[in-house]
Q: What sequence folds into this?
């Protein structure tokens, strides 16, 4: 399986590293070996260690004979345009983009279904649990009454420290930044924009008729 990776920052580099480290195990369990053949980046001159072909052009990735596009860029644009183009080109898509799926997921899902393609977005909300697969499949016959929980890792850390250790907010936030749980600009996390996007996705799955 040939993969085109959109974004090679912290998340994208992690995806590449995990696929390399677990390639044999994934191949043994799934029957398919995953090969990342092209990566879309902003700065092609940046040192990235051992990496496959890097390019600043999405069409270069799409034209690299890929089977699947994995989008880990974040933000609505240009991710929305790229995913729409990938689906139009007959490529399956995997995305971790909660903001995009919250705003335009319905359109993208409809497009993928019309074309008989997979659009997988488990990683956009609580990917380690997982919850989207459960709502889509295992709980499809259940009537969900409520969705509750802490869906943001930064918030989870801060609230845990404030509750368990009686740390004040600023101290807990500073620790979260130091440990890499929070971005240098944590606005999306602490002002609940991240949680809003995730809850929008979950609510759409849980309560849609």
A:
């Amino acid at each position: 399986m040939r993969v085109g990776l959109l974004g090679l920052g912290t998340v994208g580099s992690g995806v590449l590293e995990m696929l390399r480290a677990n390639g044999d195990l994934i191949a043994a369990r799934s029957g398919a070996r995953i090969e990342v053949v092209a990566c879309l980046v902003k700065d092609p001159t940046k040192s990235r260690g051992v990496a496959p072909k890097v390019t600043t052009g999405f069409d270069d990735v799409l034209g690299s004979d890929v089977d699947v596009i994995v989008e880990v860029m974040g933000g609505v644009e240009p991710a929305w345009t790229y995913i729409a183009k990938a689906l139009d080109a007959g490529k399956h898509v995997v995305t971790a983009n909660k903001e995009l799926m919250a705003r335009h997921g319905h359109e993208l899902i409809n497009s993928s279904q019309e074309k008989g393609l997979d659009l997988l977005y488990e990683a956009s909300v609580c990917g380690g649990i997982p919850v989207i697969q459960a709502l889509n499949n295992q709980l499809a016959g259940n009537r969900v009454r409520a969705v509750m929980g802490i869906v943001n890792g930064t918030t989870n850390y801060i609230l845990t420290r404030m509750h368990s250790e009686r740390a004040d907010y600023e101290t807990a936030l500073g620790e979260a930044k130091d440990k890499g749980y929070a971005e240098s600009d944590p606005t999306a996390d602490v002002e609940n924009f991240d949680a809003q996007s995730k809850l929008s996705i979950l609510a759409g799955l849980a309560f849609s008729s």
